[in-house]
Amino acid sequence: MGQSAARPRRATARQAGTPQSRGRAHWSTLSDDELLDLQFRDLGLPDDPRRVRAAGSLGLVRALSRLDRELAGRGIGFRPHCWFAEEWFSPDGVPGIAIPFYLAHPRLAWLERRMMGEVEGGNARWLMRILRHEAGHAVDTAWRLRSTPAWHRTFGPPSRRYPRSYVPRPRSQAFVLHLGHWYAQSHPTEDFAETFAVWLAPRSRWRSEYADWPVAHKLRYVDETMAGLRGLAPRVANRRVVDGVGTSRRTLRDHYRERRRYAEQAAPQRYDRALRRCFVPRSGDPREIPATTFIQAARPGLTRLLSRRERLHPYLIHNVARLLVHRARELDLAWRSGLRQTRRETLWLLERMLFDQLRRGRDRYLL
């Protein structure tokens, strides 16, 4: 993500007692508005995410330690270096993982949830899924796997232009199901990373779960290739930090303004009328329950019901429900009343979205 010039700041969190005036440990006590006016460099985050020590953030340290153990358990003699950035990514030419800054401290995670509606990687299971995916990119880079003919034959040309948007095929069995929105279908390098992540997970049942799917040959490629790397040193040892936030003058306010504008462009609008029948505009009453909270709380039960009744894969249901949550947040809706009625109407809307998507066999997502 490009760095934009910091806008002129008003009275400012720096004047109100930010890291430079009170010591860096105290920005966590600032209000949201003051925190948004800080530059990333003001946060004073550690260079290595493995060194975070804030109470409530040690889950990241444990997850990185677990990733190291999983790689070692598979005989991979490589540990990706990590740093804090504005978002998740693993850059070309650098076998490492950029981790979002908001995972460094509970206060930043709370701000992320308030501004974006969710914290990507905000629970242990989700965090490990993302780390395994990014580790796949790092392993690919460390041994330059994508430059080999076998990689090309298995996943396609890595030189293919990386799309701003892609058109997934929900029924396709040529790709693993791991991260959301059929992400393996977006680009050959993402296909490899997703396949690697499924293979790496402890107690992974990929041999049985994907036995009858065409994607099984990709998983066998990863299994055989990783076995061939045992005992070999990585060919690329670049430990450069790309787009780290340690010295960034960009403000958190600019960061979130850009991300929210992007999310609004990606939000599906075709179901707005039905959503407004289920929920009502928020009035500002602090006691009212946001529609996003209601949908997220109801989602596990609705997923089980739809999986049994319609025999739909939970992965598909989960992704459609996430689209619904994002749009409810953009419309700023709230739960009105009537638990059973609202749950029934939400179930109906989810079914409509699911079958519309399956009937078309495609939908459009922004990366």
Set out the fold topology:
Elements: H1 13-17, H2 19-22, H3 32-36, H4 58-73, E1 81-85, E2 96-100, H5 106-116, H6 124-142, H7 149-155, E3 165-166, H8 188-200, H9 206-209, H10 216-229, H11 252-266, H12 272-278, E4 280-281, H13 291-310, H14 314-331, E5 333-334, H15 339-360, E6 365-366
Parallel strand pairs: 1-2
Antiparallel strand pairs: 3-6, 4-5
What can you see in these coordinates?
With 367 residues, this protein is mainly α. It folds into 2 domains: 45-229, no CATH class; 269-366, no CATH class. Helix content is 49%, strand content 5%. The chain contains 15 helices and 6 strands. It has helices spanning 13-17, 19-22, 32-36, 58-73, 106-116, 124-142, 149-155, 188-200, 206-209, 216-229, 252-266, 272-278, 291-310, 314-331, 339-360; strands at 81-85, 96-100, 165-166, 280-281, 333-334, 365-366. Strands 1-2 form a two-stranded parallel sheet. A two-stranded antiparallel ribbon has the order 3-6. The two termini are 12 Å apart.
The N- to C-terminal Cα distance equals 12 Å
Calculate the mean pLDDT score and round it. 84
Name the beta content range.
under 5%
Major beta-sheet overview? 2 strands, parallel
H/I helix tally: 15
Radius of gyration: 22 Å
Helix content: 40-55%
Number of strands: 6
Determine the structural class based on helices, strands and strand pairing.
mainly alpha
Low-confidence stretches: 1-25, 361-367
Strand-and-helix sequence, N→C? HHHHEEHHHEHHHHHEHHEHE
List the strand order in the largest sheet: 1-2
Overall geometry comes to globular
